[in-house]
Write a structure and sequence with these properties.
Elements: E1 3-6, E2 9-12, H1 20-27, H2 71-75, E3 80-85, E4 91-98, E5 101-108, E6 114-119, E7 125-131, E8 136-147, E9 150-161, E10 166-169, E11 181-185, E12 191-197, E13 204-210, E14 217-221, E15 229-232, E16 238-245, E17 248-253, E18 262-268, E19 277-282, E20 288-294, E21 300-306, E22 311-317, E23 324-329, E24 335-341, E25 345-349, H3 352-365, E26 369-375, E27 382-388, E28 391-399, E29 404-410, E30 424-429, E31 435-441, E32 451-455, H4 472-479, E33 483-488, H5 497-501, H6 510-524, E34 528-538, H7 540-551, E35 558-562, H8 568-576, H9 581-592, E36 615-620, H10 628-637, E37 646-650, H11 660-677
Parallel strand pairs: 32-33, 32-34, 34-35, 35-36, 36-37
Antiparallel strand pairs: 1-2, 3-4, 4-5, 5-6, 7-8, 8-9, 9-10, 11-12, 12-13, 13-14, 15-16, 16-17, 17-18, 19-20, 20-21, 21-22, 23-24, 24-25, 26-27, 27-28, 28-29, 30-31, 31-33
Helix pairs in contact: 1-3
Length: 713
């Protein structure tokens, strides 16, 4: 019978929970075919590329147009997050945001009755929490500080002893910036191995802490130059150290606690065989473990690795087209599942029983994406999330033995997910022939012809990507009547080395061409009205929006930027404060490309005085990624422009929205701005705008009369 969710919430049809007969029947279905342990060379070649045509898209022109959903329903969110089940399954810990305070709440996992509630101190941010046994919580907090006039965040570990009702901080040296990465936690919660910097100038050591007030702290691994990360086996013996030093990936290894660490790997950063390498696990009593490593195919896969010799032994699993992004392990250390992304997040299961369970839950919840967020040690209870690209989802408590699934919280309590629409993957070719993937969301109840279009580039720009998942802003705009197109321009993650490297040095140039070419695809397919296209984005996407209307004003009607970069030279100088000299050099090379290229040629504030299209420029005053100075430069430079800026400043907000109130302010400002300058249902009252109808004549990525700019590749 499944689950019915309404705008008011989600209810279980059977009241007490999911019917046992239904889940039993679903469990009887055949398990998905399990992947063979096959070398990369034996994998089939990917299918040939193709371009999406409008006739292939799923449209709903006959559906009733949805009512306008209030912005606060998209910005509203569940007050609860970060769920953790106690090892015995009796208690559920969760984080609650309440009137600006971060609270940790404990519930009875069976009755959901509240048991305890305590708050973090003002100014503390919660990074993560984890059960240490059944009566203690290990809590990672961070807070702002200043070192040598540089604003930073410090990290510390706290322990909440539930039985004693006390909370204390694990002691670290005064000048430690990072006060605790968890390396290993004893099964009974009595002790933990923690990686700590003794001094901000030093590499981390590993300490064993007794998790009690006044407990013993013992250094068990000394710092080693280049080793930033330490790994323990399942018995709690630190066996591996790893880190980048002088553009080389160094790996130290020891067989057991009595042995000394030896350098077993030293790979150059530009070595084709070492572009990606990540420790997953080392097995106690063995020299072998699993790593995520790029193979000869150029794709990251799961490899069995011999740490004693520093050599891979065999490929356990590799996807024929995509990088493996994560490996899940069972409690015994054997692989459970590999995660990768094509157009959406995918899981390849190595355990047929877990594959059947995941499939059963998805069918019962009538949702496409299901994740187990937390579970007890013996799987007595689990916290499950279910959702889709058109449903923000909900959280449930699942009791496998009783076959019971109970609602815990809705992700967007006020939002009627039935009014939302599914984005669709499309493919188009950039002007140089490169295939680009994008995601198109069409408004309900409208024919997919001549629609107003919002192009929404993602942030990053490198290694980041959009995919089929729920996005508040996309759904908000589609509800207003806009088609939304999200291009994964060159340099985006998830498409292999060649695609990533195609973006190097193409900020404001080739990357921007890909945005323009996304518009050309939508226009050539008849989906978008070329006279009603705007660009909206945040961070790098905000930069791309600003640059779109400055570089090619003949194409775009307007732009809206949240926290967008406006001066690349000043941005790189700012980033330098937080990076090592080597990391800073590498980052600058990716942004600038050729050393002789003048970044002023692609910096919006340098041309702001010529702004001829409406722009919404928004910024948070507490943004430490793209600082307020970037906003101020643009505002000052745009004062002589023929078209004035529309501005929004949110006090105390950072690079992303930390509260529903901040997010709603952005949506309200964006709604008003678009209704004035690019209304979904009528011609704007602020003057005519007629770009070329022929995409081949629409700019081709060359700035119009901007001296020194280099728009093409």
């Amino acid at each position: 019978m499944g689950i019915i969710r309404s705008a008011a919430g989600l209810a279980l049809v059977m009241g007490a929970g999911l019917g046992a007969a239904q889940l039993a029947a679903q469990d009887a279905t055949a398990a998905p075919e399990q992947p063979a342990v096959t070398p990369a060379a034996a994998m089939p070649a990917p299918a040939p590329a193709r371009i999406t045509r409008a006739a292939e898209l799923v449209t709903e022109p006959d559906a009733a147009r949805p009512e306008l959903i209030p912005a606060e329903h998209f910005a509203g969110r569940s007050a609860f997050r970060m769920f953790q089940m106690s090892p015995n399954g009796a208690q559920l810990a969760m984080v609650r945001d309440n009137a600006g305070k971060t609270e940790i709440m404990l519930l009875d996992a069976v009755t959901r009755d509240p048991l305890k509630l305590f708050s973090l101190r003002e100014g503390q941010g919660l990074d993560w929490l984890r059960w240490a046994g059944n009566d203690k919580l290990l809590i990672s907090v961070s807070f702002p500080a200043t070192v040598y006039d540089i604003p930073i965040r410090l990290n510390r570990l706290m322990v909440r002893d539930l039985a004693a009702g006390t909370m204390f901080e694990l002691p670290v040296p005064k000048y430690a910036l990072w006060g605790g990465d968890l390396v290993h936690l004893a099964e009974d919660g009595s002790s933990a191995l923690i990686s700590v910097q003794d001094d901000w100038r030093d590499y981390p050591s590993v300490y064993r802490y007794e998790l009690r007030a006044g407990g013993v702290k013992e250094k068990i691994v000394k710092p080693r130059a280049g080793a930033w990360n330490w790994y323990a086996d399942d018995a709690g013996v630190v066996r591996i150290g790893m880190g980048w030093d002088n553009r080389r990936l160094k790996v130290w290894y020891r067989k057991d606690e009595a042995s000394e660490f030896a350098l077993v790997g030293k790979l150059k950063a530009d070595d084709e065989k070492s572009r990606y390498w990540s420790v997953v696990q080392i097995v106690s009593g063995s020299d072998k473990g699993y790593v995520l490593e790029e193979g000869e195919s150029g794709r990251v896969g799961v490899r069995l690795f011999d740490y004693a010799t520093g050599t891979p032994l065999e490929t356990f699993y590799e996807h024929p087209e995509r990088d493996v992004e994560e490996l899940w392990l069972k409690d015994d250390g054997t692989p459970l599942a590999a995660l990768y992304t094509d157009d959406r997040d995918r899981i390849t299961w190595f355990d047929p029983a877990r594959a059947r369970l995941n499939d059963s839950l998805a069918k019962a919840m009538q949702l496409e994406d299901v994740s187990i967020l937390a579970r007890s040690r013996q799987d007595e209870r689990m916290v499950i999330w279910g959702g889709s690209e058109a449903d923000p989802g909900a959280l449930f408590v699942f009791t496998p033995k009783a076959r019971q699934l109970d609602l815990l919280a809705n992700a967007r309590p006020e939002l009627d997910f039935r009014q939302l629409v599914k984005p669709q993957p499309i493919r188009y070719r950039a002007r140089d022939g490169l295939e680009i993937t994008a995601y198109l969301t069409l408004p309900r109840g409208r024919t997919a012809r001549g629609l107003p279009l919002i192009i929404m580039p993602h942030g990053g720009p490198f290694g980041v990507r959009d995919k089929l998942r729920y996005d508040d802003e996309v759904q908000f705009l589609a509800n207003r009547g806009y088609a939304v197109l999200q291009p994964n321009f060159r340099g985006s993650g998830g498409y292999g080395d060649a695609f990533y490297e195609a973006g190097i040095g193409q900020v404001g140039r080739g990357m921007q061409d890909d945005v323009d070419d996304a518009m050309d695809w939508a226009v050539s397919e008849g989906i978008a009205d070329p006279a009603r296209v705007c660009v909206v984005g945040g961070s790098y996407g905000g930069y791309a929006a600003l640059w779109a209307v400055l570089r090619n004003p003949e194409r775009y009607r307007c732009a809206a930027s949240w926290a967008g970069v406006t001066d690349w030279d000043k941005m790189l100088a700012y980033d330098k404060r937080y990076l090592t000299s080597k990391a800073s050099k590498s980052w600058q090379e990716r942004i600038r490309g050729e050393q002789t290229f003048d970044l002023d040629a692609v910096s919006p504030y340098r041309f702001a005085a010529r702004l001829s299209r409406p722009v919404l420029l928004a910024q948070g005053t507490a943004d430490d990624n793209v600082p307020m100075r970037q906003y101020e430069l643009m505002v000052a430079a745009a004062k002589p422009a023929p078209v004035p800026l529309t501005t929004l400043v949110i006090e105390g907000e950072g690079h992303s929205f930390s509260s529903a109130e901040s997010e709603q302010k952005w949506y309200d400002a964006l709604d008003t701005f678009l209704a004035k300058h690019n209304p979904a249902d009528q011609v704007a009252a602020d003057g005519s705008f007629t770009p070329p109808r022929d995409p081949a004549k629409a700019g081709n990525g060359v700035p119009i009369d901007l001296p020194g700019a280099a728009g093409g590749k």
